[in-house]
Amino acid sequence: MYLRNFGSNFTTPEIYQLNNEIISNLEKAINGEYSAIHCYEKLAQIAPTEEVKMQILEIREDERRHLSAFITTFTNITGQQPSPQLTEDCKETYREGLVTSFIDEQENVDFYLDMADKIQDPMIKEMFKRAAADEQNHAGWFSYFLMTNEKATITRQNAGNFGAKGALNATSLHLVQMLTYALQDEFLAQSRYNDILLNFGYIRTFARIQEAELRHIRLLLPLFDRYQVEVPEDNSKEFITTPATVKEAYAIGVEGEIENIDMYNKFMSLEIPADVRAVFTQLRDASLNHLTAFERGLQRK
């Protein structure tokens, strides 16, 4: 929200009786906005996505407008130019930055509304009310970023217990776990390659391997029935990240197939039924072919 420049409404400092509390609070507001501008620049640089980065920079622009309006008001009231100071250290981590920003914005809402109540001039009163509305909006954004960051953290933690990663992290394995991890990883590969095709259009390598992953799933499912193992829910979409480029997509494919191969090799190093071993071997060998295809694609990019 753009704040108006209220400087044109003042002629001389004598119009106002200097109120120490109001001037002190204006200085506090100026320093707070100045510090926020500095810290939001740093926070934007460590944001996890370009979308979040741009939103934080947009919030920073709001704070720049607030600062400009507050400086103009201070100068017109006092006849002096303020010297903004950094009053807080910027946090080093993304999460800490979000928490601090959310708290600061919420506190500023109350602070600016309190200022608006104490000031009689309607133009300055409106300036602080609008600033408070902006700060409330900012607090909402930081709350949203914080919640999505917490969800992403939980997802990353859960990913360590899903599919090939779960199998490779496991200290012991029995048949039920092996079948579950195997099917989860085939679900994951199918979702991963489907996401790539949806975002980048038809790419022959990914289209063919996506179809192969569906065949892998169909090969595994009879084993669940035979050994009376419950088929896990396919929530693999929670664990995929859309790559930024086709080259990155190939790199993700390489990484995924390597983990898949390592998983099946680990399973086959253990005592397992012959029919299960045969399916795992077939799937491992198919993944070796997929790995070769992705490596060739990566070299071309």
TrEMBL record:
Coiled-coil residues: none
SUPFAM superfamilies per the UniProt record, alphabetical: Ferritin-like
Signal peptide: none
GO terms for MF: metal ion binding; oxidoreductase activity
Residue ranges constituting the Rubrerythrin diiron-binding domain according to the UniProt record: 25-82, 98-150
Pfam (any one): Rubrerythrin
Listed InterPro entries: DUF2202 (IPR019243), Ferritin-like (IPR012347), Ferritin-like_SF (IPR009078), Rr_diiron-bd_dom (IPR003251)
Highest taxon listed in the record's lineage: Bacteria
Entry protein name: DUF2202 domain-containing protein
Source organism per UniProt: Oceanobacillus halophilus
Lineage, opening ranks: Bacteria, Bacillati, Bacillota, Bacilli, Bacillales
